[in-house]
Fold:
Amino acid sequence: MTEQGTTIPERKLYPFQEEAVNNIFNRLMELPPNANLLFQLPTGGGKTIIFSEIARRYIEKFKRKVLILTHRIELSKQTSDVLATLGISVKVINSEVKDLPQQSNYQTFIALVETLNNRLQENDQFLEDIGLVIVDEAHNNSFRKIFHYFNDVNILGVTATPLSSNKKLPLYQTYSDLIVGQSISALIEQGYLCEGQTYTFDVNLSSLRVGSNGEFTVGSHEMLYTQSIMQSKLIEAYEEIGKGTKTLIFNAGILTSRAVYETLKKKGLPVKHLDSTFSDKDRADTLDWFRKTKDGILSSVSILTTGFDEPEVETIMLNRATKSLTLYHQMIGRGSRVLPTKKQFKIIDLGNNSRRFNLWQYPIDWKHVFVAPHLYLEHRYKDEWDYEMENDYDLPAEIKERFLNSSAESFIVRDRYAMALRKGKKPQVVLDESLEDHFARIKDNASDFDEAFELFNLLNEEMKYRIKQFGKCINATHNHSDWQYQQYASRLRRRLMNFFVE
Structure:
């Protein structure tokens, strides 16, 4: 029952949730006071259902109160609703709650971390008879400042990714043990999560900068992702993969999200933008529109990674890069909910994230992540250029023999591109230099136009290879690269004809 006395139909635990509850509760019974436990389960696995049942059993067995901590208002509402289905009386501690004179009326308290911290600073006895503290999204280190107020209690943290948001404060310093729930792949196989199909579009991230927190900076994101070439890449990806589906787009900055909104709006697509500056009413109205619009597109700035549940989302677009394994899983998890009419969803990756972290459903040894987080927070995931970005096309031996009068020096597009940028030249100069290289090699090894045209054809694959390299450097769309190749080949043919025929 809620504070208002309304009841919500009870939801039965799935077998894997029942197993998790039993494992956690049995382990909690073994723990001495002040010992803490962490539980991992993928987004969409029902962590709120599980820890609410834990709360019910704890209250029933020990007759003490349970405190549930969260950092988002949406999560407190969601948790309150679930507790109501279990017949547990609950008090939500928000900014309007200044004191609690009648605490005996409630079995559980749900509190936003910042609000409760303010109350406890004013009165460290603000809450009475708490026996168990449950921390939702426990990887977020903002909760630690509250723990010292609660002595002789157990703390249960729950998270999809047991990797601290602060690399200087690893979770193993707070939690003595980790219980791992079902994996993403297992939940997909059992029909509890949708299968995610990942589509990648190569993006040159060399302009991104890493901040002091180890994450790519918002500013460098904005510089890259607001460029027209990246907007074109997003349109191309959406029209090829996600057109007509309910789509959630994650951006790193407000400028990017607004640019995405304007770009899609000009295409006549049903799109809205949402960021943290919206009022509560505007936010609610926007989310209501998104829920009611079958093929709606919502462009946001990472504020919907937690506490947002719209099962009908069919496509997730990562229009950003991240070095955070947690954020990667949170974003994709927004599309993983199962419906009778939805067994799959699409992941469009425009930030090389799946290359950095592997596919979303790929198995992860969370026990290892828990005990050795530094391996996952520092340089384990690097943005490496593809082999083809560091090497020129290797001509077959029989073709090389036709160019013996030319220099064998490699033409590395990435190096030429970097040099052009350092000298303040336009990127197009790289293709001009490449064309001169091809022209010189054909000219030096052909006796007439017929032979020159034959050599031109022998170099065709190398030409395509270089155009592809250049396209990666400037983040060109496939269509733009195809156009560049046609222009390149046409210009080279004209040069050869003018030289040999005239």
Remarks:
- The longest strand covers residues 130-136.
- The chain is about 45% helix and 15% strand.
